[in-house]
Amino acid sequence: MSHAAPTTAPVITPEMRAQFDEQGYLVVEGVFDVDTDLAPVVADYAATLDALAEKWVAEGVLNNRYAGLPFGQRLIKIMQESGANWGQYFDISLPQTQVYADTPIHISEPVFNLLRHPRLLDIAEQFVGPEVLSNPIQHTRIKPPERMVPAQAKNGLVVRVGWHQDQGVATPEQDEVPVLTVWLPITDATVENGCLAVVPGSHKRALADHCPGTGPDGGLQIPSKLIQGKPVPVPVKSGGALLMHRLTMHASLANQSDDIRWSFDLRYQPVGMPTGRPAFPGFVARSRQNPQNELRDWRAWSQLWLDARAALAPKAPPQFNRWSADTPMCA
After folding, report:
1. What HEC string does 211-267 produce?
2. CA quadruple 193, 194, 200, 204: dihedral positive or negative?
3. CA nearest to 285, candidates 132, 182, 120
4. Predicted TM-score (pTM) above 0.85
5. In this structure, are residues 155 and 290 in contact, taking their beta carbons and an 8 Å threshold?
6. According to the model, what pLDDT value does residue 2 have?
7. Which of 68, 72, 129, 215 allows an S-S link to 219, with CB 3.0 to 4.6 Å?
8. How far apart, in whole angstroms, are the C-alpha atoms of residue 103 and residue 65?
9. E-strand spans in the chain?
10. In this model, does residue 327 exceed pLDDT 90?
11. Phi and psi at residue 186, in whole multiples of 5°?
């Protein structure tokens, strides 16, 4: 069924802004038209999966391309047969560790168009002001049913993520920067397939300690004794968005369905302020004052990431996070 494409961004009413300020999160429906805005992204990723299947069949990793299946079911079959750690092939950022000259990263024109979609930037502008930077702490998460994911492939891109605050994965220089998290589901995000859960009002407290290696994905996680308040699941339909404050405690639920749950998490902030990950490239997505500074060429954006990968590959990884295993709360 076709949907009429939205022509303007949903208006953030005073009531909606009050909810965001009080609760630390807000669901906005109808940001994108599924057919016209999201379909190019889906087709782009389907082509990437096709190329990956061809590569792995040629290398003997797969015996079957599973070409006749829908994207989600095809991905599940390829994952199960290959047993490979495949998530990085679809991500729009580099990993925090083990960056090599050939580390996969998905930097395509449809993704760039999504990052700077006018209706998305209209919403971001209402929270961070008229000079909008696309922050490079961003990810694509395609999560199969968690029971089907091989142990060696489990990471935060493909399985549930433990309780955290987005500010926790940025360096301290960014602590006072008003960063807006925009979480975009490509497939409907439901309780069954692993939508996010939030702790309402948790953004009013300080940044909590995060303990490395303790999350279900092997990443950072806030100790359970620091989670105060009742978590609330937040389903979001495809085409909508979940907005979050940088200090809102949230986690993703396990995907217990029979298909994938697919989302992008993006961040926007004012231009000219620290991004919290200086080794990765942000870009000016909108500038009302100096529109000539906006990056409009997806190939230039792609090159920024390739340059960052080349610079990081021969070096020890920079320190992205501020906690260690001997942090008192984690000991």
Report:
1. ECCCCCCCCCECCHHHCCCCCEEECECCCCEEEEECCCCEEECCCCCCCCEEEEEEE
2. negative
3. 132
4. yes
5. no
6. 43
7. 215
8. 23
9. 25-28, 131-143, 180-185, 196-198, 232-234, 241-245, 250-252, 261-270, 283-287
10. no
11. -85, -40
